[in-house]
Amino acid sequence: KRRSLKLLDFPKSTYYFNPKKEDETVVNEIRRLAFKRKRAGYRMIHKSMRKAGWRINHKKVYRIYSQEGLKIRTKPRKKRKLADSQPIPIPTRPNEVWAIDFLHERTIDGRKARILSGVDLCTRENVVLAADYSISSKRLIRFLESLPELPKSFVTDNGPEFTSRVFTNWLSKNNIGISYIDLGKPTQNAFVESFNGKLRSECLQLSFCQDLDELREELFKFQKDYNEERLHSSLNYLTPFEFKAKYGN
């Protein structure tokens, strides 16, 4: 039995813990939220439950969260010199600054897909999440032009799609600025890197997509949940859409 638990990477405390009858639904909800949002701590789980109408205090959530072995395991962060970082413009309204980036995912049919992700630095809204087997500068522009809104400025790395003449000419034509992070310093684009981490752990690593169409379906579901359901501590425990609504039109 112990070997089976180890092979499944399943916490022993979760298997052996016998909750009181009246707490079973509470325990199951905490488990569900912890496995759905692998990077959420007990505070975020407590806020989510309270918002959904559960009458429960944070101490009880923490106790069950600990008993279930759901604590987040994090690697110690390396200290970085201040000189290694570059400040990113802090927006005061939605659509002032978007951070965009690429990541890759291989589908079951063996093909490698590229995913364009983007985050509004004011609202934390996932403003773009698109996938294709190849994304050139021209394809990137088509993705962006299909969106209902565009920002005043982008923050990106120095990838060829973002530095090409085709893309920079398009930016100039649309009066959109761009800031490039230092070469080899992805942490300077922290907001979109954080989003990509959640996308990987809560979507891509849990979904086994047969092809590009299935991948796009999973990305659509993740984007909807992220913008409409996921609470953010930096937004005073509002969702990105709720926070954006505070600014009106």
Automatic annotation (TrEMBL):
Integrase catalytic domain sequence ranges: 90-248
Origin species: Leptospira soteropolitanensis
Pfam families in UniProt: HTH_21, rve_3
InterPro entries: HTH-like_dom, Integrase_cat-core, RNaseH-like_sf, RNaseH_sf, Transpos_IS3
Gene Ontology terms, MF aspect: nucleic acid binding
Alphabetical GO biological process terms: DNA integration
Protein name as it appears in the record: IS3 family transposase
Highest rank taxon of the organism: Bacteria
